[in-house]
Design brief:
InterPro entries: S-Me-THD-like_C (IPR048350), S-Me-THD_C_sf (IPR024071), S-Me-THD_N (IPR010318), S-Me-THD_N_sf (IPR027479). Residues 170-350 form the S-Me-THD-like C-terminal domain. Residues 8-163 form the S-Me-THD N-terminal domain. The radius of gyration is 19 Å and the shape is globular. By secondary structure, it is of the alpha+beta class. It folds into two domains: 2-205, CV3147-like domain (CV3147-like fold, 3-Layer(aba) Sandwich), CATH 3.40.1610.10; 221-353, no CATH class. The strands form four sheets. It has a seven-stranded antiparallel sheet with strand order 15-14-13-12-11-17-16. Helix 1 packs antiparallel against helix 2 and helix 2 (27-41) packs parallel to helix 5. The protein has helices spanning 6-19, 27-41, 67-72, 77-91, 111-118, 139-142, 167-180, 194-200, 205-218, 222-230, 330-336, 350-353, and strands at residues 2-4, 44-47, 57-65, 97-98, 122-123, 125-126, 150-153, 159-162, 184-193, 202-203, 233-248, 251-260, 268-274, 276-282, 285-289, 293-298, 315-321.
């Protein structure tokens, strides 16, 4: 057991932004809201999974919608609280602890201001180990947990209770409501006992995010240090020369094109995304695909770059990280693999797509 203060929040935000593979919300917004709450109410207790009583009642508040919209329509703690209270009132319960639904610059932090205000702990686990765009894309769903009922609220005070027959149906309803709410909203789901979180969640995501943040803030050469920590692969070093994105159906969809730098000088690359980065091609060859993580980092500082922040001319390194093993099962690939997102290809692990990398990595330039 330990406590999370302002300094730890900053590190978690950076690390979770990297793990968010381009999605999961803007880290600046989540950081400011969390820091303000901690300064007002005090540090938040963080529990490792081994410290959690199986009978604790837990839930996950988060944000839903298009990341580009949330940059302009900034969420607040009140709407996050309302979303949680909707399902608590419906079930006539009050939760004992919170956990993030995914790793992402904002969504990893959503539980902290609510926990600070209520004086309850946050659990070091999540439902993805990265970020995904749809409600059913969590490891809980792989074990048959549907996450319903679900509360949803916006900043104007509009609220809705969703009690879909499944997480897939809940996703359809929630996406429609979110679009009506203006493209972004607060939501809460997965009220359950902690034993189910222990069984089905991705463990230690917040601690890992903090370790990543520490490297980003202190290491002289953060990218090679991150590659080592995450067992990751350098996929490309290049400059963005085109970005195409559009907001539709509650998502941001598009692609990023890059020209190579340094040892990749004569090469090109393309990255496709739906809120999160999904497919990465180098010279027309796919070398990383969902559910493995495709992360864009500033080439000089190593800082993660989200899909809504990618722009023409920035110099980046793209790395690929093996996903949590929970996703590498047939149902996991069915739910979040490339074919689900409309790509005509079978999933191949990033380590198998990058067995023979002929480039000598040079971080001196």
């Amino acid at each position: 057991m330990r406590y999370i203060g302002v300094e730890e929040i900053e590190k978690i935000a950076l690390g979770a932004t990297l793990l968010g593979t381009g999605g999961g919300g803007d880290p600046t917004i989540g950081t400011l809201i969390s820091k303000q709450a901690i300064e007002q109410y005090g540090p938040v207790q963080l529990l490792s999974i081994d410290e959690v009583d199986d009978k604790l009642l837990v839930a996950s508040p988060s944000g839903i919608g298009a990341p580009t919209v949330s940059v302009e329509k900034i969420p607040d703690i009140e709407s996050h609280e309302r979303a949680l209270e909707i399902i608590e009132d419906y079930l006539d319960v009050r939760v004992d602890a919170l956990f993030p639904i995914e790793a992402g610059g904002s969504n990893s932090l959503v539980p902290f201001p609510i926990a600070a205000k209520r004086g309850i702990p946050v659990i070091d686990a999540d439902g993805m180990g990265r970020a995904f765009p749809e409600v059913q894309m969590v490891t809980f769903y792989l074990d048959g947990l549907q996450g319903m009922p679900m509360g949803i609220a916006d900043m104007q005070g509009n609220v809705a209770l969703i009690n879909g027959m499944s997480a897939v149906e809940g996703e359809k309803i929630a996406r429609s409501i979110t679009t009506t709410f203006g493209g972004t909203a607060s939501d809460a789901s997965y009220v359950m006992t902690a034993d189910k979180l222990k069984q089905s969640g991705v463990i230690g995501t917040l601690t890992l995010s903090e370790q990543i943040g520490e490297i980003l803030l202190t290491a002289d050469k953060p990218i090679p240090a991150l590659l080592k920590l995450l067992n990751a692969f350098l996929l490309f070093k290049g400059k963005v020369f085109d970005v195409s994105r559009k907001t539709e159906g509650g998502f941001v969809r598009g692609f990023t094109q890059l020209t190579g730098l340094d040892e990749y000088e004569d090469e090109t690359a393309e990255m496709s995304f739906q809120n999160e980065n999904l497919i990465f091609k180098r010279n027309e060859d796919v070398i990383c695909m969902t559910p493995d993580l495709i992360c864009v980092l500033d080439l000089e500082t190593g800082m993660p770059v989200t899909t809504e922040r990618v722009k023409f001319g920035i110099r980046v390194a793209v790395i690929g990280i093996p996903c949590d093993p929970k996703w590498r099962v047939p149902k996991g690939i069915e739910v979040v693999g490339p074919r689900y997102f409309g790509y005509d290809m079978d999933y191949v692990e990033v380590e198998n797509l990058n067995k023979e990398d002929l480039h000598e990595i040079n971080w001196e330039r």
